[in-house]
């Protein structure tokens, strides 16, 4: 019995140099497989220039899914330029990608033979991965901004969702009747359904209730990862974007939120949700008329003391470590920590065996310092940056192209996410290489901790970040409103992590460097390279101390002092300082920098 | 409804977070309902009203902007174990220095009896000289028409109506302590924290972004 239609494979002919509309396919006709997937390949267009069109519910839904997952939108481009077979990454425009399409008869024949074995997508991907990652979904100039791989995966998700959607009704009979009337009737049915069908878009920001202050409390991040993995397993086909910070989901009803909350709440995760409902043919990521809600675990109106010392949201019913030792016996090992009153959730988090073995050891290392690094992505800025980059690209091909044509679709977002994950992997690798495996703990893919030897290690971290970002997102770094964020905190190993975390949650600047107890530097990403160059220069710390102290009382007075420097050492320092001020640094920021340099 | 608007100044305040922080004792950057209402009740001895645990005076506060004001500073001290005769691990206590805040007192019957200028003691670390605050009456202001916005104060959910909060659009919850009248005990009540999206009088909301 043949496998069911594999939606991801609908565009495999694009892996070859053959025309997508089968107009030069005749020499390979004898290789054409006889499978539902091949039927999808043949019938997923609704255009008279193609030899076939959707004839049943499956191929009709594949056609709709293909449209939802494509980069081109309601505003078709009409740029008259040469076709571009490989992807143009808007955020990395100078990257060169080789055109690896199958060009010989034997290569094309081999692929068709392989298709006749009725493979699933992962089997096919293993064999043709490099072409899928290089070939643009659409080779028309201006449309070549996403890869075939991204498009294929997204089509698969939309197709499976449409198959299961309860409120988006389409009968096999309806499609067959329309198909009997011809291609125009099927196109009419598609337009009718796209007007009738509505989808909810949900943008969910993730917040943790736990305030981790001991190394074992960091288990909350293992729970966060478990939550993301389970959400992906259960709701993968509804997911458009996922990170440790936020999820973007779609569905035809709001029940999906109950499912998501039931995964989040027992783990002490709160979801801040924006919800929008749109017609299928008007789907966009603007969230302009969004409804807001915050999905908490069940919270009592009143709680008798004691309150949980970690989350402060539930009654403390457990005592740490007494209850832990009582339940584990000898297995508990040595738990030499003070007594804490905890709720059931926080107790269970702390009782889990920690995967962060290095961090647990460092916690006992009382003299040491740490560097916490958190990378983030501002979704609103990302959306705007991608739109701007797309517009710049389109206008490089046709200066008169209207702004509305630079629309950011789901496929572009998914394409970006793939590169974002590669960038994080590159950053992790380079930090491990620089500091050594033993000194780098990965808490989350975007949250790391490094055992630091001195303050200047912060600058080495920032150099690694800059290098990784330059490799993957050069076009984002130099522009205002960069969506990439990074926070680096240098602190003693005993400094409570929840303070670092809270500060990150409130972060508004693109780049933030904190030296706990000394101060903070806030920067725009576009200044990072210059900042790192200047950071190597020596400073007279006492001069900076004076200036920072005065600026706390009056910025104007500090500036007056700055301009009226008399002593030579002071004058030299202030001369160098003049280079920093255009980068947006305050006097206090420069002092923080000097502290890091000195320590 | 209206509010009695007071300016609060203090040399140093430690409004402690309840969360444990290892060697660091962090400090709140707001003046919650429980802290200011409790402090006012202690001075003016208002009695519970209609079974309410808070008494007749109800207030909230928030920090004001100002160069050099509300600086977060750290005091390092080592609590002494008098029995063992040894000092424990040094603690770092965060506090607000040169505090400038606004206190909004609900303009009900008991509140209008408050003097124009008075002192209260607020927050923790009082044995180290923290917590003495002076309040000066500025004006009596009408709450005005409620508008949607972000809450800039902390108050119990059950007191939202008292402060003219018409609707809670998206709450950020936490808990504040509500003392039981006549005892040293009480319960923690679910409360709206700063950042909650509400429809409320202008005075309770973050200023509009220009």
Describe the protein's architecture and organization.
The complex is a heterodimer of chains A (599) and B (210). Chain A is α+β, with helices and mostly antiparallel strands. Chain A has helices spanning 36-43, 57-69, 105-116, 121-134, 148-164, 172-181, 183-196, 219-235, 255-264, 322-328, 344-351, 357-363, 379-397, 410-435, 457-472, 474-477, 497-505, 528-534, 541-553, 555-563, 568-580, 587-598, and strands at residues 198-208, 239-242, 246-251, 269-279, 291-295, 302-303, 318-320, 340-342, 369-377, 440-444, 447-452, 484-492, 511-515, 519-523. Chain A has four domains: 7-194, no CATH class; 197-355; 357-517, Alpha-Beta Plaits, CATH 3.30.70; 537-599, no CATH class. In chain A, a hairpin with a 3-residue loop joins strand 2 and strand 3. Chain A is globular. Chain A starts with 35 loop residues before the first helix and ends with a helix. Chain B has a single domain (2-204), classed as 2-Layer Sandwich (Alpha-Beta Plaits). The longest helix of chain B has 12 residues, at 33-44. Chain B has 210 residues and is mostly beta strands. The model of chain B has no long low-confidence stretch (mean pLDDT 86). In chain B, a hairpin with a 4-residue loop joins strand 5 and strand 6. The relative contact order of chain B is 0.23. Chains A and B meet through strand 5 and strand 6 of A and strand 13 and strand 14 of B. Strand 6 of chain A pairs antiparallel with strand 14 (186-192) of chain B.
Throw out a few tags for this protein.
heterodimer, A: 599 residues, alpha+beta, Alpha-Beta Plaits, 4 domains, five-stranded antiparallel β-sheet, B: 210 residues, mainly beta, seven-stranded mixed β-sheet, three-stranded antiparallel β-sheet, globular
